[in-house]
């Protein structure tokens, strides 16, 4: 049992697919993208991606596209100087041999513009094979167009209308990405389009003339929509300009099924010569893949592939718009940050008009930055809309913050004014002038400092509160002043009688008391008194004494009264001993000084 269990464990360990042993030899083709089970979308193959990720040099890619069974895999093997048994698999059956996109694991090392560049060769699944949808073909074509630095369009014999229609995606990419800017950083530089026509005789025409003729407008007197669409593609191919070239390659041998077993000496000499010329041509036009202004190493290239594949699988049909969204994502985030940073410096609260104006200024700045940096022409509108929506979200949050800050500030000012009004209501010495000054100061400070959307609401509350405070103060003011005058008259009677002993003060105090308590009640009511000229004179005199902008008598009345009392006591107790009883004012008789002493000096 022990031996059998050890054998069992050994068999399990041997069955584990250890990657370090699986990709020990990179001189072989690897799948990097493969079809999903439904054969409509694409998915990554990690096995091939590891072959690319290990590269640290700038990367360039040569992709061959074309109809199935057109000799793409054989052509790649010829460009790599590999036999069919070493390189990409070559099939002779009716179904396509290559599924998805494959890469040769060992790149060619070339010096391009003084930079060591690793060149990968990509083999793609052929178009129009049995059991596939057109959408799947479009995804393969789109992915090869975006990834490659040189795109070899391998066509047997001639150029058909369907072959031109296939270029619609490449044309759309050219319009979106390549035609918009020159001399600036672009999303990714266009692949060099190489028309490769495999034909023995061109009937006296060069291959470039053949391509130019195929791209001429087709008459469409009946207004056929499909012909119009192809004609638009023909027109748009001019955008790529010097980005495309044409090359003819004769058939290598009449016995096509035996090509894999033939050496160069057995192939057509003309073919061998043209093949070497094609190698030189590809080498001369290839450049490192540039994405957003810089070349990519292996890991960056794989990351780029993942982004593109995600975009192309988005939705039922691959679109340039989805690619535009991928490349504009970073631009959109940067422009949104510009708006957010600018709005973050705004001091809240502020008026709604000012906030709206500031929003418009910074929004326009963000939109200008997006217009200068964004990728795509037609499909960028969706990214513009998305940026506008994101800006509106930030703006909505700032509006809420402005309302909160405005409400908070106005509430503080309102509470401060309310406390100030309560304080003025409780003055020890009531003063209409002081109340009016505090009322005006409170109202002015509120009008100047309370800003924002909450101001209108708080203005109404403030107006009601101040109106109630003013009415209550005026109502209590006359009664409190009347009571103060009564108390003042009685206190002056005591002072004139017992402290200063000046009979004129005592008589004046009695007259004031009698006037307030007896005469007014006999001839005037309290309300009538408050509207009489005599009362107005009393009020003016009181306000003159009590209120001064320099000296707050309400605050200092008690300390000053205490000080005056201390001085009087001191004067009464110590002053007479030191200076004698020399009085300036007429005093009451003093029995101690004799009955015949005059009352004044």
UniProtKB/TrEMBL annotation:
Signal peptide positions on this chain: 1-22
CDD domains in UniProt: GBP
GB1/RHD3-type G domain span: 56-176
Pfam families, sorted: GBP, GBP_C
Keywords: GTP-binding, Hydrolase, Membrane, Nucleotide-binding, Signal, Transmembrane, Transmembrane helix
The keyword Nucleotide-binding belongs to this UniProt entry's keyword annotation: yes
Keyword Ribonucleoprotein attributed: no
GO MF assignments: GTP binding; GTPase activity
Transmembrane intervals: 556-573
Family: Belongs to the TRAFAC class dynamin-like GTPase superfamily. GB1/RHD3 GTPase family.
Record protein name field: Guanylate-binding protein 4
Highest classification ranks of the organism: Eukaryota, Viridiplantae, Streptophyta, Embryophyta, Tracheophyta
Gene: LOC111456028
């Amino acid at each position: 049992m022990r031996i059998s269990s050890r054998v069992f464990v050994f068999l399990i360990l041997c069955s584990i697919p250890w990657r370090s042993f699986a990709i020990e030899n990179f001189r072989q083709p690897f799948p990097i993208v493969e079809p999903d089970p439904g054969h409509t979308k694409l998915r990554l193959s990690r096995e091939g991606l590891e072959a690319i990720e290990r590269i640290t040099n700038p990367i360039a890619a040569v992709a061959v596209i074309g109809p199935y069974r057109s000799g793409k895999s054989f052509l790649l093997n010829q460009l790599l100087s590999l036999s069919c048994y070493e390189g990409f698999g070559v099939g002779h059956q009716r179904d396509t041999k290559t599924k998805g996109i494959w890469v040769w694991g060992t790149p060619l090392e070339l010096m391009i513009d003084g930079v060591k560049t690793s060149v990968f060769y990509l083999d793609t699944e052929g178009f129009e094979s049995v059991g596939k949808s057109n959408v799947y073909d479009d995804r393969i074509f789109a992915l090869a167009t975006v990834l490659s630095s040189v795109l070899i369009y391998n066509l047997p014999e001639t150029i058909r209308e369907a072959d031109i229609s296939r270029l619609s995606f490449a044309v759309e990419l050219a319009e979106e990405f390549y035609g918009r800017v020159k001399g600036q950083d672009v999303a990714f530089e266009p692949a060099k389009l190489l028309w490769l026509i495999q034909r023995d005789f061109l009937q006296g025409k060069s291959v470039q003339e053949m391509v130019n003729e195929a791209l001429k407008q087709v008459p469409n007197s009946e207004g056929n929509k499909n012909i119009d669409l192809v004609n638009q593609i023909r027109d748009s191919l001019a955008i790529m300009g010097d980005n495309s070239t044409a090359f003819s390659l004769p058939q290598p041998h009449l016995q096509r099924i035996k090509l894999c077993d033939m050496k160069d000496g057995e192939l057509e000499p003309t073919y061998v010569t043209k093949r070497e010329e094609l190698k030189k041509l590809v080498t001369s036009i290839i450049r490192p893949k540039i994405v957003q202004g810089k070349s990519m190493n292996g890991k960056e290239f794989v990351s780029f592939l993942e982004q593109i594949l995600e975009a192309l699988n988005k939705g039922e049909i691959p679109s340039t718009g989805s690619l535009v969204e991928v490349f504009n994502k970073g631009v959109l985030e940067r422009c949104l940050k510009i708006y957010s940073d600018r709005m973050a410096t705004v001091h809240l609260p502020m008026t709604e008009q000012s906030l709206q104006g500031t929003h418009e200024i910074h929004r326009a700045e963000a939109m200008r930055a997006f217009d200068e940096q964004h990728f795509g022409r037609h499909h960028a509108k969706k990214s513009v809309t998305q940026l506008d929506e994101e800006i509106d979200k930030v703006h909505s949050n700032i509006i809420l913050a402005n309302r909160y800050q405005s409400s908070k500030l106005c509430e503080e000012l309102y509470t401060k004014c309310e406390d100030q009004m309560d304080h003025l209501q409780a003055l020890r010495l009531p003063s209409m002038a002081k109340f009016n000054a505090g009322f005006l100061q409170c109202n002015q400070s509120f009008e100047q400092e309370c800003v924002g959307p909450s101001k209108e609401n708080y203005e109404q509350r403030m107006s009601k509160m101040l109106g109630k405070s003013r009415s209550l103060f005026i109502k209590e003011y006359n009664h409190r002043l009347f009571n103060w005058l009564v108390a003042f008259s009685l206190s002056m009677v005591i002072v004139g009688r017992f402290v200063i002993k000046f009979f004129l003060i005592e008589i004046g105090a009695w007259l004031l008391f009698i006037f307030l308590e007896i005469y007014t009640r006999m001839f005037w009511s309290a309300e009538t008194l408050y509207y009489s000229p005599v009362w107005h004179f009393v009020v003016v005199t009181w306000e003159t004494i009590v209120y001064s902008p320099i000296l707050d008598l309400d605050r200092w009345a008690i300390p000053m009264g205490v000080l005056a009392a201390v001085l009087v006591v001191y004067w009464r107790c110590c002053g007479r001993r030191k200076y004698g009883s020399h009085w300036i004012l007429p005093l009451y008789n003093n029995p101690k000084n004799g009955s015949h002493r005059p009352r004044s000096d």
